[in-house]
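1st attempt posting a full record on here, be nice pls
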Amino acid sequence: MSTPVLEAPGKAPAPQKNGRVGGGLLDPKQLITSLPDALRKLNPGTLWRNPVMFIVEIGAVFTTVLAIAEPSFFGWAIVVWLWLTVVFANLAEAVAEGRGKAQAATLRKAKTDTMARLRSGEVVPAPELKQGDVVVVEAGEIIPGDGDVIEGIASVDESAITGESAPVIRESGGDRSAVTGGTKVLSDRIVVKITQKPGESFIDRMIALVEGANRQKTPNEIALNILLAALTIIFLVATVTMQPLAIYSKQINPGVADSLALNGNGVTGVVLVSLLVCLIPTTIGALLSAIGIAGMDRLVQRNVLAMSGRAVEAAGDVSTLLLDKTGTITLGNRQAGEFVPVEGVSEQELAEAAQLSSLADETPEGRSIVIFAKQRYGLRERDVHNAHWIPFTAQTRMSGVDVDGSQIRKGAATAVMKWVRDNGGHPTEQVGHIVDGISASGGTPLVVAEKTKVLGVIHLKDVVKEGMRERFDEMRRMGIRTVMITGDNPLTAKAIADEAGVDDFLAEATPEDKLALIRKEQEGGRLVAMTGDGTNDAPALAQADVGVAMNTGTSAAKEAGNMVDLDSNPTKLIEIVEIGKQLLITRGALTTFSIANDIAKYFAIIPAMFAAVYPGLDALNIMRLHSPQSAILAAVIFNAIVIVALIPLSLRGVRYKPSSASKLLSCNLYLYGLGGIIAPFIGIKLIDLVIQFLPGMS
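the predicted structure (as tokens):
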């Protein structure tokens, strides 16, 4: 599989929008396009993976042979509708896969066989790029493969992948260094270290996944398939024994007329196969695969790439959500809003120290401090010689500089004050009061100190996103516990948590703390979901049951997670959980409908087959169908048509409203259980009224 690259260095095709698949759920054009795939799936080597429909296909072959041996309108009508049942089941899966293939077609537009320029100046075919190769990409060129920016900063158009026309910034260092093959550099020049293996680029994996080539059945899907196979075997045994029982009944009651199960000719075989097909759970057996594929497709439509169906299903069972405060719960643009000096220190002196200690801090907060000091206090470019810069890290939670014998640090209150004490200093009580006051107001305090002396506190202000409290209320109704993760101190964290309405919070969190919290939740039997974008998030993303990596994040984060959000929107984790729950509810609803549906079909076929042998069974013929033959044919036709009727629901999914599990179960039983019983009575009766005028139905 080729890698998305340039036609030649310096030239690039026009960027393409990543259009989403549209059209109706049963668009005639889509049905026609999917029909060849449905017919190809009739291959027994493919169909055996679906035991229910495999049995139906065997029955269709068997009845075809019987119809050829003893031709009759009734026999051939049953044969046609049994084959249509199998084709309709395959069509449901083919339509679901076709929607993914349409999505893959838009991704392939970003793939072109071309050349990539190595840093040494050598030009090589992009498919030959190996892990560790370093390529140079300049403005107007397409990035030839997945990798990390190791030099430079550039504006990148990712519309070929995300569908979002707004360019993004990619730069070396930090958590926005990952680039994707097939995206276009709009400005400047970057040097990229390739992290992919040949043929395993991000676009290659996306195409394989949305086409369903790598879709593996989930544990629940496998368990349901086993249950359906067991039910099929039970009904198969029951059906095989029916004719011997009918023959025995005839022997002990010679005066009783023959039943359809006793004729001893080809009609008997056709009838018994019809009975088997109508009794086994063909509806859910036909739609089960389509439901799973459609669940992944709904994520793709929202620009989320699930690495497996297991991840989508796990999202539906999640009981704990870990959400980063910044960018997820709050707007994420914490800005310096005030410098609060301690007694004996001027604001100007604090501003100078805060700016110096923040020059090595590449976080948005650090940059806002530099800008605030420049705008408010007129502190502009300065010459600093022989300085040793201390960059900010998640472990130290500090940044700073050592210059001219002076050591200045800025960072989290506990970290900086511990640093002061370790150097022999003693922070005053005033510092604690300032920190507590800022924290209690929902702000974030950062302490600035010079070795043994605290100079003051920086007040960072943040804002909770609108509507977050309502979203978390919905999570609670779904039985999901929400935990806010933040590097802030406990007071600030509590203020934001109370305002947002989350259930719990983890303050001053390090990567190790996140990992420990996930393991603790999992030990209690809960499934955990979280988002992340940095290399330090990778262990927690790998440990979480649902790990959603941001596309703007590092390659390590994307490799560790089992989902990638192409829009890099941390809030989307809530939508992912809702899609997962919708998948589970859709599967449960259609399973309930299918089983209830089978119960109703008993009343159409059993009385028709045995009323002659057991006259008392006529009391069960509550539909008062025209004849035994019309009753059986009507049931087979309805069994096939209901599959087509439910394809839109399996693709769209059952509408999901946040509520308790018991309420959802009751709703499913009433709506789909009761509906599954009533629908066949109406449908089979209407079909019987139509076909009773056909020849051979008397």
